[in-house]
Amino acid sequence: MKNFSVRFHATHAVTVLALTGELDAHTVSELEAAFEKCRQDGNHQIVVNGARLLYISSAGLGVFLGQIDEIRERGGDIKIAALNPNVFNVFDLLGFPLLFNIVDTEEEAVTLFAS
């Protein structure tokens, strides 16, 4: 089993999901459960902090695509922050910057909800 975890914290009215480790087909259920918890708790303004995300597979990317429409239908959004260069390259190659705000810091992502 690969090492992956999701840690929650709140900043203002924004829920932050801090990802650690490798997100792949074996670990996506943890991220899916985290998004589900956000929805159940009524938290639709979400920042995903990827500072400690070491790897993401197509299955991991699919979780983001599978969540964004429902979150936006509920008036929220998912912002992505602090990706390491290798992980950012995967997001970038697949056109994610056209669908998601991807910024350098968690603080910058949080402030995007205020604008």
Task: Furnish the topology, listing elements before pairings.
Layout: E1 4-11, E2 14-23, H1 28-40, E3 45-56, H2 58-73, E4 77-81, H3 85-93, E5 101-103, H4 106-112
Helix pairs in contact: 1-2
What this model shows, in words?
There is one protein chain. The chain has helices at 28-40, 58-73, 85-93, 106-112, and strands at residues 4-11, 14-23, 45-56, 77-81, 101-103. A five-stranded mixed β-sheet has the order 1-2-3-4-5, sandwiched between helices. It is an alpha/beta fold and 115 residues long. The relative contact order is 0.18. The chain has one domain (4-108): Transcription Regulator spoIIAA. Helix 3 links the parallel strand 4 (77-81) and strand 5 (101-103). Helix 1 (28-40) runs parallel beside helix 2.
